[in-house]
User: Which sequence fits this backbone?
């Protein structure tokens, strides 16, 4: 496949050319309208009867690639030298009208046997809806192209990060994790009303809820995995949990062995930052054989609970000992309901620092520490 580029003189099937390319003089570009009519100096030859791609199929979709194929008259294949592929992000009705729109991506590919793989992290992002349409083209001796009409427009959505991509994130996180500090408690901050509702309406239990969209856009757990968020980071000078929290003035504390033991599996979920110097690592604690455990086994890298760079549980002198990484902020998701009677709830003495909340936090796409080359 040739290096993808903006198709000079190729109209979009989804928008007029003048809406695609603004602030350029007409003398600098050659245009054609979306009905396929060419300007006199368009660089595209008079239309020959090239076959319009029919019955387009998209499959083998990953977070940054897909395979495309279509039906075509076999008699015309010898005349076709190139394919023009028009790829656009599907319009979001709730998008910011004042934000610059993404430039449609026109891919020019040599006419290789189908299905053809389209790959590129610079124009494909994970978990994103796209539209695609295709033209067939025949390059003429003078360098111009004869083209077919555009095919029908097909919609598809790219996939989440695969375990391979998450392993790349894991390896990046391991580099910055730092030394391990001992801890003994997991804690969760919320408003008083949250704990009142758990006692009265949920049988004294905190119930799992669907993870929000914070972190990497391609994370397979966002919007899918159900769990309860906990923290475990301690202050290096006191060995205790910090007294400030973004999430509420009431804190549930539970002994670490209640959530983390030999009957618990540990998974790496994500690495991200919010335009800051410090980074967050999302880990998942799932009781062995639980629905959360089965979900994670298919999607996330599993960690050795006694030997990893982030969160460990080891046995010393007949008791469990726990350590967490010092240089990253751990967000731990526990996938089962948890009874409040297993811990204590008390008001913290510090402040509620709402500005530090990571609820639906967007990952910095420019950070070289926590991004991989398969979209954000």
Assistant:
């Amino acid at each position: 496949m040739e290096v993808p580029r903006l198709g000079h003189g190729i109209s979009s099937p989804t928008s007029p050319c003048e809406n695609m390319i603004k602030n350029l003089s007409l003398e600098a570009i050659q245009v054609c309208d979306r009905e396929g009519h060419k300007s006199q100096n368009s660089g595209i030859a008079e239309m020959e009867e090239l076959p319009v791609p029919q019955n387009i199929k998209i499959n083998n979709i990953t977070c940054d690639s897909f395979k495309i194929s279509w039906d075509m008259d076999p008699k015309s294949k010898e005349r076709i030298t190139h394919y023009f592929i028009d790829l656009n992000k599907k319009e979001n009705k709730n998008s910011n009208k004042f934000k610059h729109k993404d430039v449609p991506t026109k891919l020019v590919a040599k006419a290789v046997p189908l299905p053809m793989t389209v790959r590129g992290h610079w124009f494909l992002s994970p978990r994103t809806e796209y539209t695609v349409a295709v033209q067939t083209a025949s390059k003429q001796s003078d360098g111009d192209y004869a083209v077919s009409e555009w095919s029908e427009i097909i919609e598809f959505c790219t996939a989440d990060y695969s375990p391979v991509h998450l392993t790349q994130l894991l390896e990046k996180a391991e580099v910055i994790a730092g030394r391990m500090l001992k801890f003994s408690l997991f804690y969760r901050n919320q408003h008083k009303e949250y704990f009142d509702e758990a006692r009265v309406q949920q049988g004294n239990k905190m119930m799992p809820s669907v993870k929000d969209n914070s972190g990497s856009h391609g994370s397979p757990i966002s919007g899918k995995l159900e769990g309860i968020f906990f923290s475990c980071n301690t202050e290096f000078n006191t060995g205790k949990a910090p007294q400030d929290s973004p999430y509420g003035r009431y804190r549930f504390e539970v002994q670490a062995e209640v959530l983390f033991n030999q009957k618990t599996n540990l998974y790496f979920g994500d690495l991200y930052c919010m335009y800051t110097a410090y980074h967050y690592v999302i880990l998942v604690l799932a009781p062995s054989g639980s629905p959360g455990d089965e979900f994670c086994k298919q999607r996330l890298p599993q960690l050795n609970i006694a030997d990893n760079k982030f969160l460990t549980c080891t046995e010393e002198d007949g008791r469990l000992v726990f350590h967490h990484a010092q240089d990253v902020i751990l967000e731990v998701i526990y996938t089962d309901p948890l009874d409040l009677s297993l811990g204590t709830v008390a008001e913290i003495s510090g402040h509620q620092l709402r500005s530090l909340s990571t609820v639906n936090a967007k990952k910095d796409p420019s950070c070289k520490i926590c991004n991989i080359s398969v979209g954000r």
